[in-house]
């Protein structure tokens, strides 16, 4: 199996849940402490050895390209001031990976966004990272997924145990156990099932490592839930018919995940990450304890 080097990050969504903040600012650029959410995702890809990143964008997403480009005027100003610490932090984003961009044009769902990556990806296996899920760098989920794909072939999805009453918010996997405690074989996938119809409590979270055979399946996939082309539907086909390009495995993730796709979860992610920072954590935790004690 070839070593996976390419990552695809869909970033064409309108971010309507965060209006009016996202009226002129891409939701992916909203700060999580002091970095935009999208930078955490690119850092994760780079840490897993994926040094070629394709971002699927849309209208009003130019700020994404600017963030991962060099800003010579700002760098010169910081150099003149002798502010080496901030200079390094500004340059980090442009040194992470080789960045590419393509517009989705007509946003027709995650499956369609992935299909837009075909000319760039070609016939190589590749990773897909969704920006709403931030995975703690101390829990190298993506590296584990690429390891499984390179050994077993086919595609790999990230799974996480969720409460039964929440499963309708996710794609849900029917699975069989393997000899490895954190790896399962996926036998079926259902997009956002009703709790009583869910085949398990294992939800698909926003990390995928895909065989290029998924492109041919996506081209034949009819619009599903919400009138969109669902990646889950294509993976369901690969899971039930391995001749198409299966098998499909799942890595059951039990680490730290920060959800930034919901306003409440976004705020909780900021608090959790700020508390764990060495430079911010001690003072912030002291303030938080006092606030909780006196205000709540």
TrEMBL record:
Enzyme nomenclature, EC number: 2.7.7.9
Swiss-Prot/TrEMBL catalytic activity: alpha-D-glucose 1-phosphate + UTP + H(+) = UDP-alpha-D-glucose + diphosphate
EC class: transferase
Biological process, per Gene Ontology: UDP-alpha-D-glucose metabolic process
Pfam families: NTP_transferase
All copies of domain Nucleotidyl transferase, residue ranges: 6-270
A GO MF label: UTP:glucose-1-phosphate uridylyltransferase activity
Annotated family: Belongs to the UDPGP type 2 family.
This protein's name: UTP--glucose-1-phosphate uridylyltransferase
NCBIfam families (UniProt xref): galU
InterPro entries: GalU_uridylyltTrfase_bac/arc, NTP_transferase_dom, Nucleotide-diphossugar_trans
């Amino acid at each position: 199996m070839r070593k996976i080097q390419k990552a695809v990050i869909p970033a064409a969504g309108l971010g309507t849940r965060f209006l009016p903040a996202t009226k002129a600012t891409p939701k992916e650029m909203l700060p999580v402490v002091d970095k935009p959410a999208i930078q955490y995702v690119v850092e994760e890809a780079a840490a897993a050895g994926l040094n070629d990143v394709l971002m699927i964008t849309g209208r009003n997403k130019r700020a994404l390209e600017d963030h991962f480009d060099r800003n010579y005027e700002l760098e010169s100003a910081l150099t003149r001031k002798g502010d080496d610490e901030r200079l390094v932090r500004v340059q980090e984003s442009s040194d992470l990976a080789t960045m590419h961009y393509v517009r989705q044009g007509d946003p027709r769902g995650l499956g369609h966004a992935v299909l837009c990556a075909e000319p760039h990806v070609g016939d190589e296996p590749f990773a897909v990272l969704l920006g709403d899920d931030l995975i703690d760098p101390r829990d190298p989920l993506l590296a584990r997924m690429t390891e499984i794909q390179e050994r077993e072939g086919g595609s790999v999805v990230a799974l996480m145990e969720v409460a039964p009453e929440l499963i309708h918010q996710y794609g849900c996997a029917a699975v069989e156990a393997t000899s490895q405690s954190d790896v399962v074989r996926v036998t079926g996938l259902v997009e956002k099932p009703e709790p009583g119809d869910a085949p398990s409590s294992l939800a698909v979270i926003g990390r995928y490592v895909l065989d290029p055979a998924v492109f041919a399946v996506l081209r034949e996939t009819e619009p599903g839930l919400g009138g969109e082309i669902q990646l889950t539907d294509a993976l369901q086909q690969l899971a039930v018919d391995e001749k198409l390009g299966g098998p499909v495995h799942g890595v059951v993730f039990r680490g730290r995940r920060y959800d930034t796709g919901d306003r409440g979860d976004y705020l909780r992610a900021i608090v959790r990450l700020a508390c764990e920072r060495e430079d911010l954590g001690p003072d912030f935790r002291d303030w938080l304890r006092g606030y909780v004690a006196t205000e709540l």
